[in-house]
Amino acid sequence: MAGMDDLRFSLAMRDIVNSLIQEALDQQRPKPRMATVKAIDRANGKCTITYNGETSQIIVNMGTPSPSAIGQWVRVAGIGTDKYIDGVVGQSWEQMQDVFSLMKVI
Questions:
Q1: What is the DSSP code (8-state) at residue 98?
Q2: Mean pLDDT of 42-52
Q3: pLDDT confidence band for 35 (50 / 70 / 90)
Q4: What distance, in Å, lies between the first and last C-alpha atoms of the chain?
Q5: 54-93 residue pLDDT tens
Q6: What is the Cα–Cα distance from 44 to 41, expressed in whole angstroms?
Q7: ∠ CA(45), CA(46), CA(51), 5° rounding?
Q8: Fewest beta carbons less than 10 Å away: which of 24, 37, 61, 75?
Q9: CA-to-CA separations, 96 to 6, 11, 30, 89, 90, in angstroms, rounded
């Protein structure tokens, strides 16, 4: 039987432990969900959303990317009260600002 002093055995054991830890973390981390933007508060970096298929509204944090319009779909990630916008379907606010700044140059 191989021991920890055997390099191949040690590497295989490390890979197994890493795999087990990753699986446990993935089970505890909630999957991102899609939602519809109901209100945008850029001054405070907050956005009110409704998860698809639900009626209750939730306030989440905005960073980059942030939605450009009400009614836009976003991907929301995070745990508990630390939910945030992780992705935007369509053009984000930042992309719209880039387009407007290019139009000023032309």
A1: H
A2: 93
A3: very high
A4: 73
A5: 999 999 999 888 899 999 999 999 887 889 999 999 888 7
A6: 6
A7: 145
A8: 24
A9: 57, 49, 30, 13, 10
Cβ contact 60:84 at 8 Å: yes
What is the C-alpha separation between 4 and 25, in angstroms, rounded? 26
Beta strand ranges found along the chain (DSSP E): 33-41, 46-51, 57-61, 73-79, 82-88
What is the token pair recorded at 33?
A: 């969900």
The backbone torsions φ and ψ at residue 80, rounded to the nearest 5 degrees and listed phi first, read 60, -125
What does DSSP say about strands 33-41 and 73-79: parallel, antiparallel, or unpaired?
antiparallel
Q: Which two tokens stand for residue 2?
A: 């191989």
Whether 47 and 66 have beta carbons less than 8 Å apart is answered as yes
At residue 106, does pLDDT exceed 60? no
